[in-house]
Structure formats: C-alpha cells, structure tokens
C-alpha cells in the first residue's frame, strides 16, 4: 500500500522531532542547564522546530493539513525522550564532576 504525501510528511516530522529531542536533551544535560528555562526552551523548540523545518526546508504546504496534526505528531514521544536524555546526561555530568 502506497503512503500518501501527507503520511510521508508526518513521518518526517515525527523523526525530526525525535532527533531534535535527543539533541536538546544531550546539549541541555551537558551544559548542566536546570529548571524551568530549560524546559520552556525545549518545549518551544520541540513544538515549532519540526513544523518550521517541514514548511521551509521540505517545502511542504502545511495549510492543506490540520495544523494540530502536524504540530503534535510525535510530541509526546519527543517530550519523553528529551526529558529522559536530559536527566541521564545531567546526572552523568554532575556525577563526573564530583
């Protein structure tokens, strides 16, 4: 069964969001960023980054889709991945300094 263009775009947004979450978690943990500022920055990046990438780099027509569908595709998994990697990296960095 052939995937539609919409499904392919949503798959790309999903995986981009996971990679961004992984990168943010590693960076935030390695620079020992703590608290609400780190969480808010990551939330903004995870919400808007992949959608902007799809719109400008992949040249997709985001207006044809429901905006919530693209905005929230893979967000829950990305948020969990970000938090898990952030905590593990932060704990490793802090433990190695002690």
Written overview of the protein:
The protein has 98 residues and is an all-alpha fold. Helices cover 78% and strands 0% of the residues. It has helices at 5-30, 35-56, 67-71, 75-97. Helix 1 packs parallel to helix 4 (75-97). The N and C termini lie far apart (55 Å).
What is the typical, i.e. mean, pLDDT? Answer: 86
Order of helices and strands: HHHH
Shape: elongated
- The span between the termini is 55 Å
Helix count equals 4
Please state roughly what percent of the residues sit in beta strands, choosing from under 5%, 5-15%, 15-25%, 25-35%, 35-45% or over 45%.
under 5%
- In helices, the fraction of residues equals over 70%
The class by helix and strand makeup works out as mainly alpha
For the largest beta-sheet, the strand count, sense and barrel status come to: none
List segments where confidence is low: pLDDT < 50 over at least 5 consecutive residues: none
How large, in whole angstroms, is the Cα Rg? 15 Å
| Number of beta strands | 0
Tell me briefly what this model is.
This protein has helices at 5-30, 35-56, 67-71, 75-97. By secondary structure, it is mainly alpha-helical.
What would the keywords be for this entry?
98 residues; mainly alpha; 4 helices
Summarize the helices and strands and which ones pair or pack.
Elements (H helix, E strand, L loop, with lengths): L4 H26 L4 H22 L10 H5 L3 H23 L1
Helix pairs in contact: 1-2, 1-4, 2-4
